[in-house]
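Sequence in, structure out.
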Amino acid sequence: MRNYNRQEQNLYKYTLANTNLRKEKSTSSNVITVIPARSKVQVNEAEEDWYEVSYNGQRGYVYSDYLSQTKYTWTNVILRSYPSAESNPVIIIPQKSIVQVLSVNGDWSHVMYDNQEGYIFSYFLSDDGDPPEEYNFKYFYTDMTKFVNDNQIKSPTINLITTDLKNKLTYIFEKNYDGSWNLLYKWSCTIGEPSTPTIKGTFYVNGRKPYFGSDTYRVKYATRIRGRYYYHSILFNAAGTQIIDDRLGMALSHGCIRLAVENAQWIYENILDKTAIIIN
């Protein structure tokens, strides 16, 4: 059984290019300042498209595509000066450490760790800090109830959420008296498109928002998976009065998992913080 790691709260990211720090969550809003490429910013809050960050004492919004991606090492790993196993080691990064990925070149990730820049063989990075395939996923895509019970999945609350990215399905389980899991719901969902994939791994519900969005859209009943990744409703207009995209069973989001409004609302109102989530 894998160890459940808690996600770090004080998160920093790096800008991938010269980036506008904006007053509002809109590409047409006023620019507070231009943040130089490779600058370190503190993340205050995150949503699917935008991060609220602090930089040089100024607070504003940055579009998510212009910031590094958060990954975790699942073993002790060498940070190297170049993308080659023969290159000089910079430092040994401990397992379960946060690194910020600037880019990926073949099998290597260009990263920042503890203000040091270098390269890590991408195999040693994951979304949750656990090794790949630690669970037996034999039944994950065909019989989710058998998967969660055969693997004796643990959750700190009476519920468990799993999402099957292959078949684009989200499952809600309730704990029985004997510790086994009973399936409550099975829902179609929309996941991240290939260029902005949904994270994989084991996570824990960490807060919620009644809605979020920008000047072009709004989503409702958002329950946080981690960082900017949420379970939330299909898309509404910016005022939240009309559905503008109700597609489910597709891969077209920026990484969040979209659900029918009533299903997103059920999670928002019934699932407690710290509930375990498994996405694969």
